[in-house]
Amino acid sequence: MSATGGPSDRAAQTPAPGRPGPVVEAAGLSLSLEGRWILADIALNVAAGRTVALLGANGAGKSTLLRVLATLTPSSAGELRLFGRPAGRMSAEARSRIGLIAHQPMLYRDLSVRENLVFFGRLYDLPDPAGRAGELLELVQLAHRSADPVKTLSRGMVQRVSIARAMMHDPALLLADEPFDGLDAPAARTLEGLLAELRAAGKTLIFSNHDIRQSLAITDDVVVLDRGRVAIDGPAAALTAEAVLQEIAGA
């Protein structure tokens, strides 16, 4: 674990010979908006195939950090490397290895489920967007609703379509901002299963979540943010919900 403001143990690690390097490397990553530090001295090191949960109170900086990792918001200071390359100099091809599930589903409500996925597949120049859409609709268990407009779906179904959209181009790194937010219990279990399948497929996942116990059960590592700084960074197996909750409550 790391103390607030210090580099994490994982950030100091060097990949063993024969193993792939980190997907995400951040050192001193900071972001200032209107004179206020939203992120301060963030250190991260996420290896390929790891699943990381971002936890913290509202306003801790979780959504902002995900936007910085997605290269949508540039940092004010520090260094961010993705797939071994400086984030600020990444090509469009390199950025296409990132998928994002945001608070907003980024779907066209009047288009059908399949039309949405095919549209996004064409944006990435996929050779067979319709075929890829069909595969993902089977994965998210929505093939039977493929012809229905998105606006007719439940909140949980829209979230599953959003996940399929983010996976259309088969990204190596998937970032998700509160993917469980607003889901009922069956939809949450379905999403847990989807994340487990992505983990098994070797994808690197980083997601924010309010449910501490759920996060500890389904992730490899946990990062707790406190007012834009890393308060805890460690393996989920070594943490308890009570310890994490105490840190968040203290924040």
Explain this structure to me?
The two termini are 17 Å apart. With 251 residues, this protein is of the alpha/beta class. It is built from eight helices and ten strands. Strands 6-7-8-3-9-10 form a six-stranded mixed sheet, sandwiched between helices. Strands 2-1-4-5 form a four-stranded antiparallel sheet, covered by helices on one side. The radius of gyration is 18 Å and the shape is globular.
Write out key terms for the chains shown:
about 250 residues, alpha/beta, 6-stranded mixed sheet, 4-stranded antiparallel sheet, 8 helices, about 25% strand, globular, disordered N terminus
Outline? globular
User: Helical proportion?
Assistant: 25-40%
Radius of gyration: 18 Å
Task: Give the strand order, joined by hyphens, for the main sheet.
Answer: 6-7-8-3-9-10
Topology pattern, helix = H, strand = E: EEEHEEHEHHHEHEHEEH
Largest sheet data: 6 strands, mixed
